[in-house]
Amino acid sequence: MSLEKITAQIKAQGDKIPPVELWDPEYCGEMDLQIKTNGDWYYGGTIFKRANLVKLLASVLKMEGDEYYLVTPVEKIKITVEDAPFVLTEWHWQDKNKTIMVVSNNIGDEFVLDIQHPLSTNEAGELYVIVRRNLLAKIHRNVYYQWIDLAKEVATKKGTELVFSSAGCNFSLGAL
User: Which one of 21, 25, 42, 97 counts the least CB within 10 Å of its CB?
Assistant: First the structure.
């Protein structure tokens, strides 16, 4: 399956994020497409230079188990993701009371950090946010350090943690 054929199928779906969770097409093999830890996309060893193409392909990205696939209504193609498919690169307060945090990732998805898009950690203590479906964005180091500045020390059952709030939810940056 060529990259051109996949993009043509995706474009035929329109501008909305396609409902890939509802699609169960036939598996068609693997493609030499990689998403690196820093969020860069590569095809055949060459970096994607067109942000619109990355955004288009990301709209049909699906995770099943520990594997990632590009999914169209008729095909499912396995790709390689080194860590998480997205990187959370920016944030700002939506309101002047600083109670609702809006975050955005490297492809321009913007959403509120809340119960649907929670902050989580892996075994190594690295931070991630659920972007959509079960796809994660790794927290960029600059964002992490900015969040440390606004977090408060809170005593918990696990000890003292750095915690901040958004949309009525408390999020931990980890133990001190």
Answer: 97
